[in-house]
Design goal:
This protein is of the alpha+beta class and about 290 residues long. It is built from two helices and 19 strands.
Length: about 290
């Protein structure tokens, strides 16, 4: 209170409020958690400050938090998640603010345990001998699964003719098996297996034999044969960087000569035919006149 000794006395009263930025109490706040899929989870975030901080929850990746019934949650010092699934897995942020900067946050990681699952897009694959082929299957598991492939003989694949790759992405794994050159013993059923501490799952891909498709048709005529040879010959000459103009012109001239000879032979045939018809007609007329 401020007072001035006048007549009459004058005074003024003021109030002082001390503000304190927010702070999160680690002892009363949840730490990283690991639970089984289908469990209920409660996350707590205790904060102090003046004025009293407001607490909200956000996912580090994905923003707002929704329950299975699409109900949005995330306000208050307690976050309850019912029947969690692998989709709930990841880091959560507890953010406390009271209008006094700076706002503070704490990161809490939720891990959801579940047994492996395996799915395959193409369970039936055809290939011919000598082909390079890639078989692929997908797995989800947490803790991270141990993955491997088995051959049609049920042996774990370690041969040099195969290449095994695993591509992890979070709790998902893409498994690839490359057969460098398909051999007769490679046809049959392959298994991709995923195993962790909660269980094991596998998927099967059947590899069957197909015939190699023909790369070119057989020429039906001499001209087709020459054209096919000319195309192959030009390709070889172009590949080696050699000019092929004289040879091409000679082949084209030969084709023109063949066409000319064919046309000439056809014309001569028609002339002989017409001449024979004319002789036959004249003979018939003369025979008729003599009979009269």
């Amino acid at each position: 209170m401020c007072q001035v000794n006048t007549d009459p006395m004058s005074s003024n009263t003021g109030f002082l409020e001390v503000v304190v930025p927010p702070d999160i109490l680690d002892d009363s706040t949840s730490t990283d958690m690991e639970v089984r899929e289908g469990s209920n989870v409660t996350l707590r975030c205790a904060a102090t400050g003046t004025p009293k901080p407001k607490v909200m929850w956000r996912r580090e990746v994905g923003g707002t938090i929704t329950q299975a019934n699409s109900h949005e949650v995330g306000q208050g010092s307690v976050l309850k998640l019912t029947r969690v699934t692998r989709a709930h897995m990841g880091p959560y942020l507890c953010i406390a603010s009271n209008g006094v900067p700076p706002a503070v946050s704490k990161r809490i990681v939720l891990n959801v345990y579940f047994q492996p699952m395996v799915w395959i897009e193409n369970q039936l694959v055809g290939a011919y001998e000598g082909q390079t082929l890639v078989l692929e299957c997908h797995s989800e598991a947490y803790p991270t699964a141990i993955t491997y492939w088995t051959r049609p003989s049920n042996e774990t694949i370690t041969n040099d003719n195969y290449k095994v790759e695993t591509i992890p992405k979070g709790y998902e794994i893409t498994m690839k098996l490359t057969i460098k050159s398909v051999q007769p013993q490679d046809f049959g059923s392959y298994r991709c297996v995923a195993r962790n501490s909660l269980g094991e799952m596998d998927g099967k891909i059947k590899l069957y034999r197909i015939d190699r498709s023909p790369t070119m048709r057989r020429p039906s005529t001499r001209r087709d044969s020459k054209k096919s040879w000319k195309m192959d010959h030009n390709h070889e000459r172009n590949t080696t960087g050699m000019k092929d103009e004289p040879m091409t012109k000679m082949i084209e001239n030969e084709d023109e000569q063949i066409d000319f000879q064919s046309a000439t032979a056809s014309s001569l045939f028609h002339c002989h035919l017409l001449a024979n018809l004319g002789i036959t007609t004249i003979t018939a007329i003369l025979a008729g006149g003599m009979s009269t």
